[in-house]
Amino acid sequence: MTRTLWDLSGDLPVAGRHYPASFGQFNEWFSTEEQARGYLEAVRFRRGLACGRCGVLGPRRTRNGARWCGSCRRHFSTTSGTLMNRSHLPPSQWLAAVWLMTNTKSGVSAVSLSRSLGINYNSAWHLLHKLRTAMSFAHHDRLRGEVELDETFVGGFDEGAGSGGPQSPDSNKITILVATERATPTAIGRIRMARSYESSALCLARFIADTVEPRATLVTDGWTAYPRALELLEPEGLNYELHQTSMRGTPGHAHDYLPGVHRVASLLKRWLLGTHQGAVSAHQIDHYLSEFVFRFNRRSSQHRGLLFWRLACALTDSEPVRRIEITGRKAEMAQSDQELAIRIEELHIEHKRVREVLSSLHIEPARPLDLPLRGRRADPLHLVAAQLTRDPLRFPCADSTQAQGCGQWIVWGARSSTDWFEPTGARSTRPWPPVGRPAPRVGHPA
After folding, report:
1. Which end of the chain, C or N, has fewer beta carbons within 10 A?
2. How far apart are the C-alpha atoms of 71 and 22, rounded to whole Å?
3. Is the pTM of this model over 0.90?
């Protein structure tokens, strides 16, 4: 029995009504191009038939099957204005690609898809990348609760990340930042992944702000860039609680303390090597990560057809992407990395200038306060600018003109914002605490 009328109303999708429940039902639903086109039209206008440009309801159908909007006076088809815009592939092959991509645990490569659909490799490669683009638009909510954070390295032919790190000239690794929710102490919730220029504080801050809700608890290893990343986010009103565990002085292995991120990173590497034979470029890795995250976050769906429904909705809701935009991602990545490298170098120069200015104040060496320190003690002691700290500052500059450009209030100290040190010879007649700042938790210098 051929199906030509589709009723996709309702808030919750139902198997056998919104999406096929099995491969046999898929073949029955989309045995002709007319059925496939009708299904895509029903998915696109599931919230009501309206013009995609002006939003006027009820555009009429023309003789050739397109729609005509009398308000903006334009024709549009089922696929116009979507990722299928101006595609030479029929709708049945788009739906077949969606089914193959979502109903296998390891996905499908471009070579396998070209053989299954009988199309050339170029068309299959661009088709998969457009579907991955739709998957990237399906990530909405940020992670909550306890979130594990770590970085991993993929790609390349050398073992490890190279002696100088993943961005050194002798390394060809790609840095991937991984975040996983802790549903229970042993179970993984949702995940997020992204390629990063490096694992510095600025890169970590951008990733945390994009993927984790404020006031969440971040569980990380002892990498010193995490506290500095949170300090960079505080001026934007993004506050997080940080739980760090240093692997150097801790018995056991890293995957015992951060099981989620290590398990997900292992699955990612296995998938890249198994399905794609490791042939993934750095400028395309973000879209492969979107595919992996899309499938992993929906691994508990009762019907694999539900993934088909979600991707079909994202496919019709997404904006068009041209082929030149897909192949031009390398230039975009190079420009983005260059801008980020310049910003990181500016921060290094600024911090160096701040240290030089503050070291000229000739403040006597500090003695640690008798306080329980949650963080790591600073060794050796160094100065940090006031705007990079998280708690009330300890004492004002002796001469504000010498600290021009780096903030009037400074602190002696610490690699972590939880390490506090008090200068022994500092004296000040300025009011304490500074205007707009809360009072310190312990006495300030006399």
Report:
1. N
2. 41
3. no
